[in-house]
């Protein structure tokens, strides 16, 4: 049982405390301030749901962990919740006590809100930590912030890592997927703890170092972008079943449940089945029928779309998913639109696109969406000179994270075979696309004819069609650019660039 640092400090602070006791506690404090008191192998700041669960996960794996929260009440509540794990926890009431309770070189996980709070916490810690100590930002940070913080850390210390943690509350508590970023030797300091607490896939930890500076947070951002697209495509086929096929929520739930036993096996399909099958205890109606159709977002999907545009790599299925979330929030505008134009027919001939075709369309859409996500990571790796081992990324997404799925195992193998190749061209996935492409086309076409919006599936189909078109229509764009701006073009029949058209003659 560790000696709790804050016990002495708090006692000394009590008004009217007996003088003798104060001296006794000061003596105790002095004792506590010696290196013997630095009992914790790691520390965590920020005991919100995710932070608290991560701390309990670390404690459960046998690591002594110091915890600190800005409001002490939260720490007290957390200690009550910790139950038997309290022995592995060192609750602290001041940042100084927190730091003093850590073994050197110290490692501190931050689980505070992304943004300014992270910078404020780093500033507060900087004066208390040594240069060789380590701060780990485990929140959903924008990787550009992580790049900046890594550069600042290199200049001013202490050392810094940004890690992406996925899996929601349950994952944090019982095994998340952990995407590590920062200097590789720094991963060596805490990697054993992160691997121990991570989810396992056939015994292998779903935690790894992926690259320098903001690499871990970039991978987590793309994970979330894929999460948005995956969720949106599921919502689109749900819409076809609900409106096009007039199926009940319960029936739809059973379809998802069946699909979860096949190639689409994944956490998101599994929970979609559960969401569809659940009844509201108050009204007795299906939950889906009483949930308002206005989706929230914290911004990571949007960051992925922005990053795709900035890096010049297509992420159109993800962009579509973000756009739909934005449109979903315009509830009044959508109501006005329906009043003005009338509802779309929204009926679909089951002969033209069956439930089986929806499953196949989802398979094709998913392959395209991951091809875009991995393509984005590959481009970032090239532009930043980061390691970013794609097979390793697919490997640590196989369990623990929100997008975990059976297909990620095949993706890991395909990327190990050739990480530079578009995932759609890997033999396993090109064969799957050849099997499912017709269904994707059928579903998108029928949905369009009947006014059922399927923007992410449509984006996936367009991407597929563009990527299989050796002669695109960008020759027209080049002609237009040259016409109005003399931007020049390349010719198909001559080498070099900077050719101009005879526009003045026209
Ligand atoms: C995860 C999740 C997690 C969070 C999403 C939700 O990997 O554990 O992605 O990070 O649930 O950020 O994002 P939105 O609120 O933007 O949907």
User: How does the major sheet shape up?
Assistant: 8 strands, mixed
**Strand sequence of the main sheet, in spatial order?**
3-2-1-4-5-6-7-10
Mean pLDDT: 92
Shape: globular
CATH topology of the largest domain: N-(1-d-carboxylethyl)-l-norvaline Dehydrogenase, domain 2
CATH architectural arrangement of the largest domain: Orthogonal Bundle
Task: Give me the CATH superfamily of the largest domain.
Answer: N-(1-d-carboxylethyl)-l-norvaline Dehydrogenase, domain 2
Instruction: Outline the low-pLDDT stretches.
Output: 1-36
The computed structural class is alpha/beta
Number of domains: 3
Count of DSSP H/I helices: 22
Structural description of this entry:
This protein is of the alpha/beta class. It has three domains: 2-213, NAD(P)-binding Rossmann-like Domain (Rossmann fold); 221-467, N-(1-d-carboxylethyl)-l-norvaline Dehydrogenase, domain 2 (Orthogonal Bundle); 478-505, Single alpha-helices involved in coiled-coils or other helix-helix interfaces (Up-down Bundle), CATH 1.20.5. It has helices spanning 5-12, 19-33, 49-60, 72-82, 95-100, 116-126, 143-156, 168-174, 184-197, 215-244, 249-259, 267-277, 287-290, 300-311, 316-328, 331-341, 355-384, 390-396, 407-417, 427-449, 455-467, 474-485, and strands at residues 42-45, 65-68, 89-92, 107-110, 134-137, 159-166, 177-182, 200-201, 204-205, 207-211. The strands form two sheets. The protein has an eight-stranded mixed β-sheet with strand order 3-2-1-4-5-6-7-10, sandwiched between helices. It has a two-stranded antiparallel ribbon with strand order 8-9. α7 (143-156) runs antiparallel to α10. The relative contact order is 0.08. Bound molecules: 6-phosphogluconic acid. 6-phosphogluconic acid (6PG) binds next to α10 and α14.
